[in-house]
Amino acid sequence: MPADFQTTVGKLASPLKDLVLSATQNGTLHVGKQEKDAEEVIDWIGKIEQGDILKEAGLKTLDTQLIPRTFLVSNYLTAADIAMYGALHPTFAKLQPAQYSAHPSVTRYFDHIQTNPPVRAAADTLAPAFAPVSLNFEGAPLPERKVEAPKKKEKAPKEPAAEAGTSKAAAESAPVAEVEGKAQKKEKKEKKAATDDAGGKKKGAAPAKVAAADDGEPVPSMIDLRVGHIVDIMKHPDADGLYVEQIDIGEETGPRTVVSGLVNYIPIEQMRDKYLVAVCNLKPANMRGVKSFAMVLCATSKEGKDGGIELIQPPANSKPGDRVFFEGSEDATPLTQLNPKKKIFETIQPGFITLDSKEAAWVNPTTKSVHKIRTKEGVCVAPTLVGASLS
């Protein structure tokens, strides 16, 4: 255990100090995976020990800091989160639903940390000091949404007229479209360079490397499937049937925000901390004001949604970001982003199914060959559903 960590935690009052030491097994766990993270953990615990962070001004600052975060340090649980949960517990144990909206990000963060297995296990040994706090959001008012006045548009050079049928969703995805446009221009240049070289032009120039194209018949290997881990989940503030999840898929940028219509089919308790399969190269979509950057792959009963919906589960020992592929196309590279106009996913999806073994697979509609969906660790499965469709 780092000496600075031991010293800093030692300054905390009991039972908070006891909670941190118990959950970290006396400082052998959750102290930071990198040296920089460990220093930040110690800094947070020092702030908690000073107490100012729990005053009204400190809580407002903390609420702002937590808006984009799931955890205080990096994208995983640390001793800083354990200490913050313990420090916040007396306050949240007394809160009324009407007070939740005062610091919505802190409320969401507290509820997430208190259900984290290592934290809950340590807290239960110190009951009643850290008894679970039941947050009843039914009577809680929604946080006030401030709408900024529209900015005056500056005159810009005229662009070519948009194609007929351009939707509002396309306009909302302008940043993504801009990136796609740059990529397409680059691809055209590379293709032209390759053509010129083949025709004898620009002698001495190296052949350009052409990016993979999405032309031709859609195939499953175009879809980017990866193992994901739900590190945070809450109900959509403006849609009763939607969850908003933070899913770690092993990216340096941190968890992706994903919106799923599973509220009426899978209880939130069964979603927390789950490992799943995420479709990662769909075009980002706005869902009732929240942009979703992936899709959770689920199995739907052959009797329909009322027969049950289950998360497709990756094999044991899977890690966030592990590649999920179709047997027979292990070496294929998925597209960076699926073009929604070409309906690649929609064309392939009818062949997705769970076998009698509950294993997830794609069945070629022409040859009837079966291609199981798997990682290097094994095949992905549905817990109970046979003959279910996947989407």
Plain-language structure description:
The relative contact order is 0.08. The chain has 2 domains: 3-137, Glutathione S-transferase Yfyf (Class Pi), Chain A, domain 2 (Up-down Bundle); 220-390, Beta Barrel (OB fold (Dihydrolipoamide Acetyltransferase, E2P)), CATH 2.40.50.140. The protein has helices at 3-10, 16-23, 35-50, 56-66, 79-92, 104-114, 117-125, 168-172, 174-198, 344-348, and strands at 225-235, 243-248, 256-260, 275-279, 285-287, 290-292, 295-296, 298-300, 309-311, 323-326, 352-354, 360-363, 370-375, 378-379, 389-390. It has 10 helices and 15 strands. The chain is an alpha+beta fold. Strands 1, 2, 3, 4, 7, 10, 11, 12, 13 and 14 form a 10-stranded antiparallel β-sheet that branches. Strands 9-8-15 form a 3-stranded antiparallel β-sheet, with no helix packed on it. The two termini are 46 Å apart. Strand 1 and strand 2 (243-248) form a beta hairpin. Helix 1 (3-10) runs parallel beside helix 3 (35-50) and helix 2 (16-23) packs across helix 7 (117-125). Residues 143-161, 190-200 have a biased composition (Basic and acidic residues). It comes from Roridomyces roridus. GO terms for molecular function: tRNA binding. Its main location: cytoplasm. Residues 1-130 form the GST C-terminal domain.
